[in-house]
Amino acid sequence: MQRRASTLVALLVATAPLIGGCAADPDPRPEPSGPRAVVLAEHPVALESDQQDTVVWPIWGGAFTPDEVTLRGRLEPGGEGASGLVIAGPGDPEARVTVELVAADGAWSVRETDGSTVLQEEPLADGTTGELVLDITADSVTVAAGGDETTLELAGPLAADGEAAGLYAYLEPGATLDLLELELSQPLPRHPELGTPLRELAAGKGIDIGSALDIWPPLHDIGFESMLGEQFSSATPTELYWATTRGEDEDYFFVPADLSMNYATVHDLSVTAMFLVWDFELPQWVLDIAATGDAETLGAVYDDHITTLVSRYRDQADAWVVVNEGIWGPFDTGESEARLAQTIWQDVLGDEHIERAFRVADEADPDAVLMYNETGAEVLGDKADFLYDMVSDFMERDVPIDAVGLQFHIDSANPPDLESARQNMQRFADLGLDVYITELDVMIYGTTDDQLELQAEIYADVVDACLQVSACKNTTVFGFSDRYSWDELGEAAPLMFTEDYVAKPAFPAVQEALR
Length: 515
Fold this sequence. Notes:
polysaccharide degradation, signal, alpha/beta, disordered N terminus
């Protein structure tokens, strides 16, 4: 693999206003004023892409407002295509203003685009193997390198007042890019008006409070990036689905997952990675193998996928959802009893495919928490009983399972019996398993005061149920802002913050439950 001399980058750019929220107990801690790590020197990020198209992916934690901010860092481009760093303004990727600092065949250039067309481009001096300094305002970029200065007067403003720009990794097909260190002088906004962060309260109770990390389409969002690290102690990156990590061309693609893991590392978040095995959005080439009934070939793909992902993130993922939703209950089938779900894995690899997944994952990382995750099994009942019997059998036969995940997607019109849920969690704990609440959200019908208060009560009661079971180690919400709630919920407003990051009553209710 071809490598270039590392390049020190320092970018001068600016400050952002705080995101609003509803009042809570005041947090007396001062606003952060020191630099903000985006990539830690002790944890560099090695990116590579064999995708057919150029990849421009947000470096989570790298959003800022462009006015007198300094970014210091080191980049090492390589491979067969151009790679580098992009500073992008807000808006549609096909139309937003971007400034791209890229290297190809050892030659660096800086260019402005409108998202699809290069508007201007200037080569940089040979001295770019040393230090680069970029002075960035909304209207111009000056690059100092090798004793020379190159200035681009931008055709359009990078961002309007109060709007954020973001840092992105740029990789053309066949390119590599090592992010050796990145640091912004502008700290992420904090939200003292929200009171004590959830992560601090949860730590006092001996549990983690987490959120899914899922922005689609992938755009920088300073509100999301600031709140995730401030409020939560664990993250669940969703960029580990088959659809993201291994698409139709069969090549692995890790840029999204690598950058999600990096955010978790920088912000000291534990990671629950999902999902290794799930019968959802599988690439056609996998479905084609399954259609042949060739268990040997499909099994090899199955094992390779699990081993590759778990091995790659062995030092970063604390827990894995090894198998997701492998059981159908009476509600799913209309039958009288629960049974294993009819998936391609079940059809071709047989009943033992779930056990097989856990054994393969354990070989790749014996220290990770390995979890089975299910929906509709939160309370006592047929599906929960089937799950209990399955994991009991696993425990008796030393199948390496460590935890059960219960999703808790809740319809406020039909909330679960939380005493039944507590008893259910306790019986899994009695087997010696940990319990995780993995995908909590509460859909409501309109945002009237009554609906918001009902939502708050349910959120708090679920957290309280977890706290009553000593083996319940983590409560994770499936996102925290309605801006990014999962699509099927539509206007259900299921999360603790509005689309504009204003806290709903559910947020202080969860704070109170954690006190």
